[in-house]
Amino acid sequence: MEMALGPLDRNLALELLRVTEAAALAAAPLQGRGDPEELDQRAVDAMRSALSAVDMRGTVVIGEGEKDQAPMLYFGEQVGNGMEPEVDVAVDPIDGTRLTANGQPGAMAVVALADRGTMFTTHVPYMEKLVVGRRARGVIDIEMPVAWNLRRIAKAEGLNPHDLLVVILDRERNRKIIEQVREVGARVRLISDGDVAGAIMAALETKTGMHVLMGSGGATEAVIAACAVKAMGGDMQARLLIRDEHEREIARQEGHPEGQVLTIDDLCSGENIFFAATGITHGELLAGVRYEENYAFTHSLVLRSASGTMRFVEAYHESSKLRAKGLLPEQVMLGAVVRA
Hints:
The chain is of the alpha+beta class. The protein is built from ten helices and 14 strands. The chain has helices at residues 12-27, 36-51, 97-101, 146-157, 175-184, 195-203, 219-231, 245-254, 264-267, 319-325, and strands spanning 57-62, 78-79, 86-95, 108-115, 126-132, 165-169, 187-191, 212-218, 235-240, 262-263, 273-279, 290-291, 295-304, 309-318. The strands form two sheets. Strands 1, 2, 3, 4, 11, 12, 13 and 14 form an eight-stranded mixed β-sheet that branches. The chain has a six-stranded mixed β-sheet with strand order 7-6-8-5-9-10, with helices on both faces. β12 and β13 form a beta hairpin. α6 (195-203) packs parallel to α7.
């Protein structure tokens, strides 16, 4: 007798792929045009529309936009067509809005799903983060000094600390960490935005040559990154970055003790995780949207925790059908769009 499939036994990540492709294709024609609000709006609208067709009863628990008042899929919004399964949804229609607006590399559209009630939620805007890959799983401690962590990570990787490449968001608040990494002798890769991609690159065992992400960035991006890192078998720790009394009060009302170390299972306790990301502008992790005579090209990453599968998906989308869906504006000529 055949066993009946459970509600999360099918690969929802492949359905999410269509969601991130839609958001990336909607945003790409505006890359380099300097209008971040219009970019966000187009990506959010496309993502919301695509999510409505997914077989799920989803609740957005991580939504981009509240910390900067950008257009967003808001916290608590119901998405999907109302069918099973019931899931938490984390979205970042553009991880790297400023990158896209300025035509800079590394922006992508991101969605993650997990069992309902398993994703960490907060309205505190920022978190400190420490991300590593599979080989260094279990050896990190965000409460310990930078040098202590780097030496343990290097040993787990079978490397000298000088050989480590550390990804850090280029912000003044991360200056001390950057200095401490360099004091150990490790190399630093500064990124201007897009630390979901940075966390994934640190957790990947192949392809990027990066070993760890350190420093503070968005709390929204931390939870989304945790979903991807857990699906890849990596490890992550984080803690809320409390900058003032207002944020301290937010954390208190949410029941999050100041200074609490959040493990990867605290950030996403679900065992069924689905993740998809599609490149918008060309980057080290994913190629950006590219336009050819009759097609738009997309490059995506798709993850599923249950099977441990990691797929890199290349797709060609017919331009006439994109125009019919509103994903390629009539006034945008293909030859005028930035080619990645």
